[in-house]
Amino acid sequence: MRAGVLSRWMLPMAPAVLLLGLFVAGPILWSGYVSFTNAALTGAAATSPEFVGPANFRRLFADPALWHSAWLTVVFTVGSAVIGQNGLGLLIAVLTRNRNRVLRNAVGVAVVSAWVLPELVAAFALYAFLNPEGTLNALLGAVGLSQDWLFSAPLLAIVLGNAWRGTAFSMLVYQAALSEVPTELTEAAEVDGAGALRRFRHVVLPVIRRSVLTNLMLVTLQTLGVFTLIYVLTAGGPGDATQTLPLLMYDEAFELDEIGYGATISLVLLAVGALFAVVYARTLREEV
Question: pLDDT digit string (tens) for 100-143?
Fold first, then answer.
């Protein structure tokens, strides 16, 4: 009886499990294998890669470029995801709560329009806005503040650019969460004399805490792998000023033709993402 119930439950899941195995587990396992070889795009190693053991990992952890890129990845993720997308999305959701429909719709369209753009299109739009002949310098030129923003402040540019593009997701998550907060709780706190900030901190925030943690996990994991936007804006430059782990992996694997070494970097990035996921998942479980 139990075997029959189990088979009826597993049968509908079989296609999803097969697809996950082919397109998720398969590439991860392949990367794990390649990271122990000297596989390359050209030369003898392209057709007959040799097993080199943990040599790629020893080389990687002794490479200052790894730690520099890891630090940039953390700064980029915290700035554009944790503070930027998450914080700005929550702020917009709170400020537009209980506002008239016209204002809510206008703000929603303005924010979501950046999110629905393909990443490549959004990146080129940002480049057109930030480059020396772009819109931003045209506006600031009248007061003498124009400059090459992608050269003078490249990290800030990609942080703000990614926050601009991804804030809509957080805004929608928090708008849905805030709609579930019982009005009786906020009204009772207001009657007791609690101001807006105290009501938000002691009444609203505990109710939407799980939504906050879930959103943080999703935007963090998505931001760790951002490549196209940074590559179009700065290509990791100037120098290595914006060379996050995805760009370091790309440069080593496809610019320098070292597929094995690039795969090793991809496993480090996977481990960083898994660490964030475990921390968020444990925090969510403790909230149940």
Answer: 888 888 888 889 988 988 899 999 999 999 888 888 888 888 78
pLDDT 10s digits, 227-273: 999 999 999 989 899 999 999 999 999 998 899 999 999 998 988 88
3-state secondary structure of 37: strand
- Tokens for 202, please give them: 């002691």
Amino acid at 184: E
- Measured in whole angstroms, the distance separating CA 12 from the mean position of its chain's CA atoms is 31
Residue 64 CA to residue 252 CA, distance in Å, equals 14
Q: What is each CA distance from 210 to 171, 215, 278, in whole angstroms?
A: 15, 8, 15
How far is residue 67's CA from residue 94's CA, in Å, rounded to a whole number?
38
Task: Name the helix (H) or strand (E) containing 94.
Answer: helix 88-96
Q: What would the two tokens of residue 162 be? A: 């990614």
Q: What is the pTM of this model?
A: 0.88
CB 31 within 8 A of CB 267: yes
Alpha-carbon gap, residue 33 to 109, rounded angstroms:
46
- Locus of tokens 């119930």: 5
Per-position b or e across 68-91, b if 16+ CB within 10 A of its CB: ebbebbeebbebbbeebbbebbbe
Distances in whole angstroms, Cα of residue 34 to Cα of each of 40, 58, 173, 204, 255: 10, 15, 39, 49, 17
Please, are residues 92 and 171 in contact by the beta-carbon 8 Å criterion?
A: yes
**Averaged confidence pLDDT in the chain:** 87
> Of 268, 254, 270, 225, whose CA–CA distance to 39 is shortest?
254
The most distant pair of C-alpha atoms in the chain lies apart, rounded to whole Å, by: 79
How many CB atoms are located within 10 Å of the residue 121 CB? 11
